[in-house]
Structures are given as C-alpha cells and as structure tokens.
Amino acid sequence: MLLKPYGEYFDEYAEKVTELRERFPLGAQIAGEQAQKDFIAVFGALLRLRNILLSFDDFSGNQILTDRDLQDYQSLYLDFYQSFHRADTAERELINDDVVFEIELIKQVEINVDYILMLVERFRAAKGDGEDKEIKATIDRAVDSSPSLRNKKDLIEEFVDRLSIDESVADEWRTYVAAKREAELERIITEENLKPDQTRDFISAAFRDGQVRTTGTAVTTILPPVSRFAKNSGHGAKKQTVIEKLTAFFERFFDLM
Predict the structure, then answer these.
(1) pLDDT tens profile 143-170
(2) Which residues are within 8 A (CB) of 162 and not within 5 positions of it... i.e. 6 or more apart?
(3) Which pTM was predicted?
(4) Distance CA 57, CA 208 (A)
(5) Is the distance from CB of 158 to CB of 143 less than 8 angstroms?
(6) By the 8 A CB rule, do 199 and 189 touch?
(7) 170/209 Cα distance (integer angstroms)
(8) Among candidate residues 215, 193, 208, the one with its CA nearest the CA of residue 250
(9) Rounded to whole angstroms, how far apart are CA atoms 16 and 11?
(10) Residue 2 gets which letter from DSSP?
C-alpha cells in the first residue's frame, strides 16, 4: 500500500478533530437520528485517519485529542453503535443500511483487563487522599470506551467497591471472577432447568475452545427432558433461549481470568 505524505493525513485529521469539537462538543446532547449519523460519519473518518497516522513516528505526541477526550467520544460512538444495532423495530433496522461503524479500528487499540487492574491498583493506593474519585472516573471512562469490557462494567465496579487493603489485586480479581462466574452459571441452570453437570462441561468446552458451539448435539444434551415431537413442546424456542443466555454468559466472562 502506498501512503501519502504524513502532513496530508495529519491535516485531514486535524480538520476532523476541529469539526468534531465544533459540531459535537463533549457534554452536549446529540439529538435526532440525522445528527447521530453525522457524528458517526465524522468520528469514523477520524478513526480511519488516526489508524493510518499511528504508523508514522511523527504522530507520537501530536494526536491533538487527549486520551480522555478520545475515550469520551469513543464511548459515545459505542452508545450509538449499540442503539443502531438493537433490533427493536423494523424502522431501526432499515436505518442500519446507511450507517457504517469502525468497530474493528477501536478493537485494535482495545483496553484490556490488565490495564483496568493497573488502574484499580492505583485507585487502592490513592484511597483516602482525595485522588480516588478521579482514578475511579478514569476506570469508568476506560470501560465505557471498550467494546469488550462494557458488558463487564458491573463486575468491575463491584470489584472496585469491595476491594480489600492487603490482598493482591490480581489474586483478588481471579477469586472474585470465579465466584461470580459460578453464581451466574448456577442462576442460568436453575432458571432454565438445565442439567448441571452437562451444562458445566458444555461451558468448560466453550472457554477451552474460545467459542460457544451452537450446532451439533452438545447443546441438546444440557436441556431438560422434553419430547421434541410433542405438540407445542417449545423445544426449538427453549434451545434458542438457552443458547442466547449461555453465549451472553461466555462473552461476559471469557478472558477475564
């Protein structure tokens, strides 16, 4: 791939930053679907330019947007992503056709759990001297700007609130996540009347393989006994519900330990 000179990309990027700040200042509501689409287009273009500029050494220290502002805009961008991809109505699904999200570009600089635990360590060290509120806000901002951590926000917030003084943060996190994972899996087993041992084996295989297998007979073996041939047995609907719940569970806890 042939790149244009750094200055040309940077000038375009600087223009997008200016447009972003002027049209969509942080803290101001972006009301109306057209305004939201415009924001998505501007920020998406900025992400594409930023992705190219990151390959140039000259861009280091010249990113214009602070990390904090970038995370706040990214969080807003992800809010709209979830909104536009929520299949609430047929009208919303039609809107998706002319909206393009650059989620893969966000994932390239994804914040991971190790970074969050580092912030948690700083939060614990700063507790009591007046700095903890700012560090806690930094943790929230980082989680909100991360596609993969958003569905874990309540876990992270609860962990921060219950953090002890003396234990290793990493060790305490592993213990906490293991307990929450078991409790949430047990709740799903109880709610859906699943076979406990088979369900745990099924989930263990998913964590081992890095995916929930929705085809084949494995998922069928964890369902409660029901005649799939009986009229109105609901076997297909039950299977789909279980798959959705276990997939959400997997995505919530995968790569957390």
Answers:
(1) 988 888 888 999 999 999 888 877 889 8
(2) 176
(3) 0.69
(4) 39
(5) no
(6) yes
(7) 24
(8) 208
(9) 9
(10) P
Q: Any alpha helices (H) in the chain, and if so which ranges?
A: 6-23, 33-53, 67-84, 90-95, 103-107, 113-126, 132-144, 153-162, 169-192, 196-209, 235-253
User: For the chain, how many residues are written?
Assistant: 257
Give the residue among 156, 162, 94 at the shortest CA–CA distance from 127: 162
- The answer to whether the CB of 222 falls within 8 A of the CB of 195 is yes
Q: What's the rounded Cα separation, in Å, for the pair 37 and 108? A: 23
Cβ-based neighbours of 196, under 8 Å, separated by 6 or more: 189
pLDDT on residue 89: 46
Q: Supply φ then ψ for residue 183, to 5 degrees.
A: -65, -40
Q: Helices 169-192 and 153-162, interaxial angle, to 10°?
A: 130
Report d(CA 138, CA 120) in Å as an integer: 10
Provide, rounded to the nearest whole percent, the portion of the chain with pLDDT above 90. 47
CA atoms within 13 A on the CB side of 180: 19
At 159, list the tokens: 């962990």
* Contact status, residue 165 vs residue 124, Cβ threshold 8 Å: yes
Asked if residues 124 and 139 have their Cβ atoms less than 8 Å apart, the reply is no
Residue 73, phi then psi, degrees to nearest 5: -65, -40
Tens digits of residue pLDDT in 212-257? 988 878 888 899 876 555 555 577 888 889 999 999 999 999 888 6
